[in-house]
Structures are given as structure tokens and as C-alpha cells.
Specification:
This protein is an alpha/beta fold. It has eleven helices and 16 strands. Bound molecules: nicotinamide-adenine-dinucleotide. Nicotinamide-adenine-dinucleotide binds next to helix 1, strand 2, helix 4, strand 5 and strand 10.
């Protein structure tokens, strides 16, 4: 029986992976520090992991001794632990870098010591920054970051150098990385650390670049939560979801159970990798929707979405991925349609509010 260590396995995505892995016959250990700003009720979070059938260890991935103990008998590490989201302001930067970059370095060094050579890493679509666009004469371009003056004037869409409009396109894994905020920078650094570990140790790693993940167990309203959680939390308070910009920002919303399935496919592939290897995969539903579509799908009739025109400078306008590579190479495709997933999400429980 393959033994897995899932770091951050008490979290939103981690616990869905744990549930699937236990069902799939893996023996699973979770190492999670139960961050106070994401787990309102630490005891409940620990108990939930145990209920799923995994061993729970409370500890920090940045602690080498905790990592050494957690790796005992483990063959594959699924590294989900991270500080997520856009954050409040730049004062969050040290915590992002410590939790995500330093944390990953400690995980990889411990794997090297323990001779554990197989890693599945949670990455994100944020590594790409702004999406890809096609110009009117057919060229693919990646526009620079949007200027505050344009956003203030309600000019949300990037335009070509000559001022003509651009058509959003899907991005695949061959595109350059262009992180636009501190969190995105840390996800790029995690990938680079993992690929350096592969070269240095002969290990094998897969990084999964998740698109916007939603589903039951999402953290409730916090500055670090994804947009689906912010809207869902507003609905739970009996308020209208407040939609930034004009609501036409394009994203790919992928259900957490589908993301868990992608991880299981990656674990199976990495477990049998014959030679040292490094591969990245986009993980999306394959369907493009706007932020406004998502707000409308989960709002109730008495509290329809309100489009505010506000913006956050770190946000990108459009980012949508092609998930063709993971379908072709690992045989994984998302199975839960947007309409079904959002209908259920509209009344699904969120994780206890953060303190
Ligand atoms: N939610 C999304 O839409 C999304 C999209 C792309 C990528 N990701 C990535 O997926 C992974 C999981 O995210 P999530 O949405 O489940 O977040 P989450 O906050 O629900 O889960 C993260 C878990 O990691 C734990 N953790 C944080 N720092 C730790 C540390 N130093 N040591 C041990 N445990 C620690 C937290 O307590 C939490 O349980 C992260 O790496 C995140 O960057 C998430």
C-alpha cells in the first residue's frame, strides 16, 4: 500500500484529496499547522481529518524535525500547505514567502534526507499573470499589468499597442510565467524550487496549476479566500454578492472534487515514474465563465449580484487555461459541470469563519 504525506491536508483542497486517497486505498498522513487565520475551529479541523481515515499530525512544514517525523515510511508527498489568496496588503509579504517558499525548501530538504523522491505540488494559474490574447491581425500577446488610471476610469480590458481590442485566448503550459502579486510570486518560486530539487536529487515531481477552485468546505469570508467564497459568504449573510470591475472577467471554475481527482491521477503517475522527471499541468474545468456568471449562479433571487466597478490592483482581467495536457498525459478530465457544481455550492457548508 502506498503511503502518502499530505501537507495542508486539513485545508479546503487538502481534505478533498485526503478523502479521495483514503477511498483509493492509500495510507494517508496529514501534516497541518491549522493556521488560526484559516481554521476557526482547530479541534474540528483535526477531527475531520481523522474521520476521513487519515492520521493527523499537527505541525509546521517549516520545522525540519516535524518534517523528518512526518516522512517516516512515506513514498509520495502531496504538498498543499501554503498561505493562499491575494492578502490584505504588502505587510503580508514576509508570511507568504516564509509559508510558501521557505516552507517548500524545508519540505524538499527533508525529502532529500529521508530519500523520498516523489512529489505532487499544488501550484496555481496565478503563475501566468494576465492571460493570453489574440490581436486583430492574429498575433498572440501578453499585455503588461493594467494601470491604476485606466482602472479608475473603468477601462478594465487590456488593449493592443495601437489601441485596438484584444480577444482572450486559452493559455497552455508553454506560456511564460508572469506573477503579478506576492502570492503568485511564491507559487512560481515553489515550482522553481521543486524543479531544482528534481535536478539535484534525481526525484520526480508534478506541479498542478489549479484554476479557481470552489466547492463545499471552502473557507468562509476572509481576505485570503477566493472569489467564490466571498460571494457564497455574502449569500449566507443575506446580502448581494459585490462584483468588482464590470463582472466580465473570464475565469475557469473547477470543483474541489475534480481537483482531488487530478491529484489522484498525478499521485498514480508519479508513483510509477521510472526516471527522474518534472512536469507541470493546468487543472481546470475546460469551461470559461465570467465572475458575473458565477455571482448570478449562487445569488438568491432576493439579493441579485451588484456590479460595483471597484478593483484590486493585483487582479488580472482574464485568465483561462487549456487543460488538454493533463487529459492527454494523465487521462484526467473535470467531470462536474459549472451549473451542477454551483447549484450545490450555493447552499453548501463553508469552513468555520476565521478568527
Ligand atoms: N483555493 C484555490 O482556488 C487554489 C487555487 C490554486 C492553487 N491553490 C493552492 O492549493 C493549496 C491548498 O489551498 P486551499 O485552498 O486548500 O487553502 P487552505 O488554506 O484551505 O489550506 C491550506 C492548509 O495548509 C495549512 N498550512 C498553511 N501553512 C502551513 C504550514 N507552514 N505548515 C503546515 N500546514 C500549513 C493550513 O492550516 C491549511 O489547512 C495551496 O498550495 C494553494 O496555493 C488553491
Amino acid at each position: 500500500m502506498t503511503r502518502l504525506l499530505v501537507t495542508g491536508g486539513a485545508g479546503f483542497i487538502g481534505s478533498a484529496i485526503v478523502a479521495d486517497a483514503v477511498r483509493g486505498g492509500y495510507e494517508v498522513r496529514v501534516l497541518d499547522t491549522l493556521r488560526a487565520d484559516v481554521h476557526g475551529d482547530a479541534d474540528a479541523a483535526a477531527a475531520q481529518v481523522t474521520r476521513l481515515g487519515a492520521e493527523f499530525v499537527r505541525g509546521d512544514v517549516r520545522d525540519p524535525a516535524a518534517m523528518d517525523a512526518a516522512l517516516d515510511g512515506v513514498e509520495v508527498v502531496v504538498h498543499e500547505a501554503a498561505k493562499v489568496g491575494l492578502g490584505v496588503n504588502f505587510q503580508d509579504a514576509p508570511d507568504y514567502v516564509s509559508s510558501n517558499d521557505f516552507g517548500t525548501a524545508v519540505v524538499l530538504a527533508a525529502m532529500d534526507r529521508a530519500d523520498v523522491g516523489r512529489l505532487v505540488l499544488a501550484s496555481s494559474m496565478v503563475v501566468y499573470g494576465e492571460g493570453a490574447y489574440r490581436t486583430s491581425d492574429g498575433r498572440i500577446v501578453r499585455p503588461a499589468a493594467r494601470r491604476a488610471s485606466d482602472l479608475d476610469a473603468g477601462r478594465f480590458d487590456a488593449v493592443a499597442e495601437d489601441g485596438s481590442s484584444l480577444t482572450p485566448e486559452l493559455i497552455d503550459e508553454s506560456f511564460d510565467l508572469d506573477p503579478r502579486n506576492v502570492y503568485a510570486q511564491t507559487k512560481v518560486a515553489q515550482e522553481h524550487l521543486a524543479s531544482a530539487w528534481v535536478r539535484a536529487t534525481g526525484g520526480s515531481a508534478i506541479a498542478l496549476r489549479y484554476h479557481n477552485v470552489y466547492g463545499p468546505g471552502m473557507p468562509a469570508n476572509t481576505p485570503y479566500a477566493g472569489v467564490a467564497s466571498l460571494f457564497r459568504s455574502a449569500v449566507a449573510r443575506g446580502e448581494s454578492p459585490r462584483v468588482f470591475e464590470d463582472g466580465r472577467q473570464r475565469r475557469d471554475f473547477v470543483h474541489v472534487n475534480d481537483v482531488a481527482g487530478a491529484n489522484l491521477a498525478a499521485i498514480a503517475a508519479i508513483s510509477t515514474a521510472a526516471t527522474s522527471s518534472w512536469r507541470v499541468f493546468n487543472v481546470g474545468s475546460g469551461a470559461v465563465h465570467t465572475i458575473g456568471d458565477m455571482a448570478a449562479a449562487i445569488a438568491d433571487a432576493d439579493h441579485p449580484p451588484v456590479v460595483t466597478g471597484e478593483y484590486r490592483l493585483g487582479d488580472v482581467r482574464h485568465i483561462t487555461a487549456s487543460s488538454a495536457r493533463i487529459a492527454e498525459e494523465l487521462g484526467w478530465r473535470a467531470a462536474i459541470p459549472f451549473e451542477d457544481g454551483m447549484r450545490a455550492f450555493a447552499s453548501a457548508p463553508l469552513r468555520a469563519a476565521a478568527q
